[in-house]
Amino acid sequence: MIRRKNILFSFDQSIESQHLYKYLRDRGFSPILVEGGTADIIYQTSLKHPDLLVLYDSPPDIDVHEICKILKGQMDTQSILILVLDGKDTKAEKLEGFGLVADAYVSRFLPVEELYAKIYSLLSIRELQLQLLESEKFAALGRLADRIAHEFRNPLTVIGGFAYRIKKKKLNDPVCQEYVGRIIKEVNRLERIIDQVTEFEIPAKGDYEYIDLIELLREVAEEFKVCIQKAPGREIEIEIPENAQIPLIHANRQGLRNVFKNLFENAGDAIPEGRKGRIQVLTGMDVGEGILWIKVKDNGIGIPPEELNKVMDPFYTTKPYRIGLGLALVYQHIRDMQGRVEIESEEGKGTTVTILLPLILKAPLPSHQR
């Protein structure tokens, strides 16, 4: 299944474009219509950053060559796929098309099924390329994490050990107690960071079992509530489905616990102090698509559109007290389960993280449904 389906569609009112547009929508794609000329298409593509731009070259106010040249020449748009559908008839005109820098250049008069197959093929190949790049990125990060853990853990153990000994010997020295207390606190924080980083080196593979998702969510939610209660001035309500009609999940228990622990922590961090917070978990399945989905919604400050594509990158964070591994670890664990993660957000209103997992129809039903 293709993960990314955003298509910008330069609609030219022809019968061919109407048929293709409807055909794409009927098959689950989300084509966005653009009816302007060259400048409008370039602007909308740069603004919306679709996965694929479909260009018809027939309107006189559309310069396909100029659009391709500009979009492929800009760093932030050069990765967008461009499919040009042309109406040229002669061999010379068709050969002229190869001078463009589009990703594909085909006749607009092909049957709609063939055009759809071309679009699906382009997006599928790009999806495989992205998966390969992501796999290589996380593999390299795992090797780096192993080296960091090895080099840092021993010195931290020594520092923490001596700090504890000094604290015991200087019980009557308040200044020493304060300074040593700060040292121990920071050592513990660094050790937690190392534990989080080394999760990249030890992916959640193996030791899979059938897990009652609702029960696991309740356990993680209770732990999260305890942490929130210790934070003065924070009021966050968390809602877990009572009796979700979904089968058990085949997963690594600790890996799945870490996924929701990170998601709840991120959601809590996004809710500003003084606001009555709400984290809502929704679950369901799409039997036709073979997908089981879990949504974690919050009413926090949201994520700016320009930051949305970066939030799952390792070590990317806007919080000074975080290292930016929470969503990256979520992504890695879900990827190991052959699933995917999608994020939607609106500034000022909140964020929704959706986890999509392969649906195992023959999996047992959870005990709370029996």
A few lines on this structure:
With 370 residues, this protein is α/β, with parallel strands linked by helices. Helix content is 45%, strand content 19%. The chain has helices spanning 15-26, 38-48, 64-73, 91-96, 112-169, 174-197, 213-229, 253-270, 326-336, and strands at 6-10, 30-34, 52-56, 81-86, 104-107, 208-211, 236-239, 249-252, 277-286, 291-298, 340-346, 350-358.
Q: Biggest sheet: strands side by side, in what order?
A: 2-1-3-4-5
Question: What is the CATH-assigned architecture of the largest domain?
Answer: 2-Layer Sandwich
Question: Which segments are poorly predicted (pLDDT under 50) over 5 or more consecutive residues?
Answer: none
How much helix, percentage-wise, in residues? 40-55%
The name of the CATH topology of the largest domain is Heat Shock Protein 90
The helix-strand sequence is EHEHEHEHEHHEHEEHEEHEE
Strand percent estimate: 15-25%
Rough outline: elongated
What is the number of beta strands?
12
How many H/I helical runs? 9
**Sheet with the most strands?**
5 strands, parallel
Q: How many domains make up the 3D coordinates? A: 3
Structural class: alpha/beta
CATH class category of the largest domain? Alpha Beta
What is the CATH H-level superfamily of the largest domain? Histidine kinase-like ATPase, C-terminal domain
Query: What would the average pLDDT be, to the nearest integer?
Result: 80
